[in-house]
Write a structure and sequence with these properties.
Layout lengths: L5 E2 L18 H4 L21 H13 L15 E7 L4 E8 L4 H13 L14 E7 L4
Parallel strand pairs: 1-3
Antiparallel strand pairs: 2-3, 2-4
């Protein structure tokens, strides 16, 4: 069972670095930085990504129940960090950015929770726990 929802703490700006940015491992370059989900345009999948990422996005879409009366033109897309282990079990969920609508934020978090467990992490991904930022975008 995932831990209760935690608000992300305010962060100070990171110190400036003069060296070249750290290179991402090859496997991380095949996974999008964020996955989009929508159900207001017929459930069309939005964005790209590898097969595992598309599966995660599809599950989120299937489990998302939008609050009634939501005006998508007046919200900020909510963002959450989702962590899961090699077996596909949800081990962490943190709302990073609120949409400004408590009902929408809760709907997103519930959709994520209902989407797990997922199939095991592919063998080519070496981490034992993967954390992905998920953003709910409407197009």
């Amino acid at each position: 069972m995932p831990r209760p929802l935690e608000e992300a703490p305010e962060r100070a700006a990171p110190p400036e670095r003069s060296e070249a940015p750290e290179r991402l491992p090859d496997w991380a370059q095949t996974i999008e930085q964020s996955y989009s989900a929508t159900s207001i345009d017929g459930g069309r999948e939005v964005g790209r990504g590898d097969a595992y990422g598309r599966m995660l996005r599809r599950r989120l879409n299937e489990n998302l129940v939008l609050p009634p009366g939501l005006d998508v033109n007046r919200i900020v897309p909510p963002n959450a960090n989702v962590s899961f282990d090699r077996s596909g079990r949800l081990v962490g969920l943190v709302l990073v950015r609120s949409s400004g609508s408590q009902a929408l934020d809760q709907a997103m978090l519930e959709a994520i929770t209902r989407s797990f467990p997922v199939p095991p992490i592919p063998a080519h991904i070496p981490e034992n726990v993967v954390t992905l930022p998920l953003t709910l975008e409407f197009r």
